[in-house]
Amino acid sequence: MGSNGSASDVKADAKQSLRVGVVGAGVMGSNHARVLAGLPGTTLVGVVDPLPAHRTRATELTGCRTFANLDELIAEGVDAVTIAAPTHLHHEIALACIAHNIHVLVEKPIASSVEEGQEIVAAAARAGVTLMVGHVERFNPAVAAIKQAISGEDILSIAITRVGPFPPRMSNVGVVIDLAVHDIDLIRWFTESDIVEVQPQLSSAVAEREDIALLQFRTASGVLAHINTNWLTPFKARNVTVATRGKYVMGDLLTRQVTECFGFKPDGSYSMRHLPVGHDEPLRAELIAFLHAVRSGGIPAVTGDQGVASLEIAIRCLETPARPAAAASARKGPRRVVG
Ligand SMILES: NC(=O)c1ccc[n+]([C@@H]2O[C@H](COP(=O)([O-])OP(=O)(O)OC[C@H]3O[C@@H](n4cnc5c(N)ncnc54)[C@H](O)[C@@H]3O)[C@@H](O)[C@H]2O)c1
User: Fold this and answer.
1) 234 to each of 164, 166, 249, how far by Cα in Å?
2) Which atom of ligand 1 lies at the shortest distance from residue 48's CA?
3) What burial letters (b/e) apply to 86-125, b meaning 16+ CB within 10 Å?
4) Any idea where the GFO/IDH/MocA-like oxidoreductase domain is (predicted)?
5) What residue ranges do the domains of the chain occupy?
6) What is the H or E stretch that residue 42 is in?
7) What pLDDT digit, counting tens, does each position of 315-324 carry?
8) Residue 184 contacts residue 314 (beta carbons within 8 Å)
9) How many Å lie between the centroid of ligand 1 and the Cα of residue 298?
10) Which end of the chain has fewer CB atoms < 10 Å from its terminal CB, N or C?
């Protein structure tokens, strides 16, 4: 896996200022612009969005210039862009940037299909530009603490819960592509292994697309993993537990409390401790890592191939046919919402 870079890397690199743009000024793109505007050694050249109201908001937030289309940004001259436009546009926008030898960070999921993702990866490789995928959860300090706690351990199983209420703006994807893809990436990253078996259970209780998913996996290394995700829970929860032969690690990704149980004794006793967890903003750490990879030419922290692999598993979850018994008992229609 590539180097994550750090704040000190950015300071050291700051002599070589990079001209960076953001494509898409919605929820994520606004955050990209806010963070990039404050990074040393980085010039935020501007933000692209077709919606005037979103351009105005970006200017108010960062004071940067805005453009109605990508060509105008490219004409200004940029070394790198982050792409936070809707997922179905990632392919077209990434290819256009790569064609101009611009380094690219694409938000997750990398694209709408595996084929589109592979085309982005191939184009970046041909052009020799850095391509990173915005799996920001890897930069959550609680996730980093879990990764460190299980390093060198014999991992047996992983369970991840990522639930919450419906997002205010419904996109055209369900919980598997929108939420579970984060955790598919974490399972692949924690185990450093590919997912080889997929057993999905999906349901649409309220939305057109799946809004509940219970996903089970087996990795090539033999780890069993489970994701519980939905948009039907009235509060947000993001929890990770990892069982290894020697430890049981529990992390709350929101409160950033990570605890490990270890030293299991035959009498059932064990030790427990809270692990130190950093305070970095995950998106800031991610963008620093991207710019570090651009400057160093090194392998980015989340490669295009890794982004494609996680998308491929998410799509497989959607395409795996329900067994006949499961299909027979599937919900006939959306649940009636009371009130
Ligand atoms: N890493 C994460 O945790 C995370 C969280 C949320 C969203 N995302 C990803 O970020 C991307 C954007 O999601 P969002 O929630 O910010 O969506 P959003 O709808 O809030 O924002 C998308 C923006 O892109 C703009 N846009 C549309 N067409 C464009 C074009 N041709 N060029 C430039 N901009 C264009 C829209 O006007 C809008 O402002 C998606 O791929 C999503 O999966 C990632």
Assistant:
1) 6, 9, 26
2) 33
3) ebeebbebbbbbbeeebbbbbbbbbbbbbebbbbbbebbe
4) 173-240
5) 7-136+283-303, 138-279+313-325
6) strand 42-48
7) 999 998 765 5
8) yes
9) 27
10) C
Q: List 131's β-bridge partners, or say none.
A: 104
> What spacing in Å lies between the alpha carbon of 91 and ligand 1's midpoint?
13
Same fold, 7-136+283-303 and 138-279+313-325: no
Tokens standing for residue 110: 């990398």
The pLDDT of residue 58: 95
Which residue lies with its CA nearest to atom 7 of ligand 1? 28
Ligand 1 mean position, distance from CA 171 (Å): 10
Return the structure tokens found at 245.
Answer: 């032969």
Question: Which of ligand 1's atoms lies nearest the C-alpha of 29?
Answer: 16
Confidence (pLDDT) at 336: 38
pLDDT of residue 330: 55
Q: What is the pLDDT of residue 338?
A: 32
Output the pLDDT for position 15: 56
Fold (CATH) for 138-279+313-325: Dihydrodipicolinate Reductase; domain 2 (3.30.360)
Give the C-alpha separation, 42 to 20, whole Å: 7
pLDDT at 14: 47
CATH number for the 7-136+283-303 domain, one of 3.10.180.10, 3.40.50.300, 3.40.50.720, 2.60.120.330? Answer: 3.40.50.720
Which two tokens mark 49?
């969005």
pLDDT value at position 322? 64
| Ligand 1 nearest atom to the CA of residue 167, by list position | 15
Q: How far is CA 216 from CA 135, 169, 211, 277, in A?
A: 20, 28, 16, 28
Closest ligand 1 atom, residue 171 Cα: 19
Q: What is the pLDDT of residues 154-164, one digit of tens each?
A: 999 999 999 99
C-beta 24 within 6 A of ligand 1: yes
- Cα of 88 from ligand 1 centre, angstroms: 10
